[in-house]
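Sequence in, structure out. Go.
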Amino acid sequence: DTHIALAVIFDVPAGEDYKSYFPKFYAKVKAGTKDTLYYGFATCGNKVLCREGYTNAAGMLAHTAEVKDELEGMIKQIGKEKVKILCSGPPSELEKIKPHMDGRLPIKFVDLDAGSLLLNAFPKGCADTHITILPEFVVPAGKMGEFKAGFPKFYAATKSGPGAAGGLYYGFGVAGDSVYCREGFKNAEAAMLHGADIKEIIEEPMKAVGVANFKLNVVGPAAELEKLKPKLAPRGAVFWELDAGAFWL
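Output:
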């Protein structure tokens, strides 16, 4: 898996309208670069997350130019200090993006590990209902090498387990002392099967970082999130409800 994934999070002040922006963005994206893979908004309380995927850096930069006016409008309305961006992809592609990013917005670049897996072909031209699970481990000083040495175990278990049939993408990425695991599944059932595939090996990294240094974000349709809550809510997961307008291009 070498795709560029973007999560843009807007912390919308209470009472501000943001939903009216969704259709404008969707229309622009559908008419824009064909290097877009998936695109959709998700909400959690008064926070909005835009989940985006692109074939490569060129696609992401083309998209950024296409929605520039709408994005400026939205940022003006809610304030640039209320926007955060997480961008993950192969380091060589991220290097092409960095010089073009707006210095006014805080952006975290996550270097995707070369072992990252594309488990199944991405859908095309349909509604997007896939689940993203994004754990973040804040790794203690001096432990990063040891932590990275565990990646192949996770790839092997993911590839060969029952969860693989319903998987889309799965890969680790590093930003500073944070390790992210970028995971995409067709539905909640596939995500839970994958959870069982790695059950034996996840405890070790969890112990290494400690509960306080573990964060978990989950994005997907409301009905699918409900199925995941019993398992993931006790781990402190933050659930983002995907808008019905989300799509695979």
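Check: Residues 188-209 form the longest helix (22 residues). Helices lie at 21-30, 57-66, 68-78, 91-97, 144-149, 151-160, 188-209, 222-232.
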